[in-house]
Design goal:
about 280 residues; 12 strands; four-stranded antiparallel beta sheet; alpha+beta; elongated
């Protein structure tokens, strides 16, 4: 479980609590998905969304695709830990300010815990070691991995409202995404407070993403590159234009001493298989 940065409490224009974003960092704990958390809370797990997964071969093996809020909504609630602790922190935006004691409220979940101390004490220690400053804009903090999560705030009502949302199964869980889920990080949103137009946009984005993946798979290029031994770290599709008829790919190839990273078409990738085109680096004698 690692600290996420740029955590935020998400509210509507009237100040009504909608959700919380635990933030993220460039670390392994935040790069391997949250399938274990999803399984624990009964959230739909899509093998095609696993980082580094061969989704082009796994695609369409499920009987039915799930989109929108349904795809992200919890259907069960294992034990969550709610508590409070005292932490000495300072307002770093106030020149010459000194550390003061603040009461911090927290909510978290931990899949397994091999330790002599209760989980609540462990969470309190994580908070005491991980919060260095406080300000008007920095008043919520998050930690997470694929197995567990913890968020802390100075606002007890936020924790209490989320505790109710968890217990009433009125919660969505996701990493990144679109609209209210657009910023990177682990998101918890109170489902009943998401406006209908936002829910529809999330649904439409999921459908578009699925159609994009299908179009990319249908080109057959993943299979061709695999059979030709043209390895890559990423081959990420996007629509070429707003007509959404043709797919182009961002290629991050292996053997980068001899291959370029670039945006490319299916034809470019087929030329790469033959050792031609813009992807192989031109050797200057």
């Amino acid at each position: 479980m690692r600290r996420g940065y740029n955590s935020e409490i998400i509210k509507d224009e009237n100040g009504k609590l909608l959700g919380v974003n635990l933030g993220a960092d460039y670390c392994a704990e935040h790069e391997w998905g949250i399938d274990n958390i999803k399984n624990a809370f009964g959230v739909n797990v899509d093998p095609n969304e696993k980082p580094f997964a061969s989704w082009w071969s796994a695609l369409f093996k499920k009987e039915k695709e799930v989109f929108g809020l349904q795809k992200r909504t919890i259907t069960k609630c294992p034990e969550i830990i709610v508590g409070e602790t005292i932490v000495s922190i300072r307002d770093y935006k106030v020149k010459g300010s000194k550390s003061k004691k603040h009461k911090i409220y927290f909510l978290g979940y931990r899949k397994s815990f091999y330790h002599s101390k209760p989980v609540s004490e462990f969470f309190a220690e994580v908070i005491s070691k991980g919060i260095y400053s406080i300000s008007e804009t920095e008043n919520v903090w998050g930690w997470w991995s694929e197995d567990d999560f913890l968020f802390a705030t100075i606002d007890q009502n936020v924790v209490l409202e989320f505790e109710d949302a968890f217990k009433n199964l009125d919660l969505t869980i996701s990493v990144g995404g679109g609209h209210v889920f657009q910023n990177g990080g682990l998101h918890f949103m109170i489902k009943s407070r998401i406006e209908a137009d936002v829910a529809q946009e999330v649904y439409d984005n999921d459908v578009d993403s699925f159609n994009l993946k299908k179009a990319a798979v249908d080109t057959g290029i993943y299979k061709k590159l695999n059979e030709a031994g043209c390895g890559f770290y990423a081959l990420s599709p996007r629509w070429k234009d707003e007509n959404k008829k043709e797919v182009v790919f961002w290629l991050n190839p292996m053997d980068q001493a001899n291959n370029n990273s670039c945006w490319c078409s299916v034809s470019d990738l087929e030329e790469w298989i033959k050792g031609e085109g813009k992807i192989p680096k031109v050797k200057v004698s």
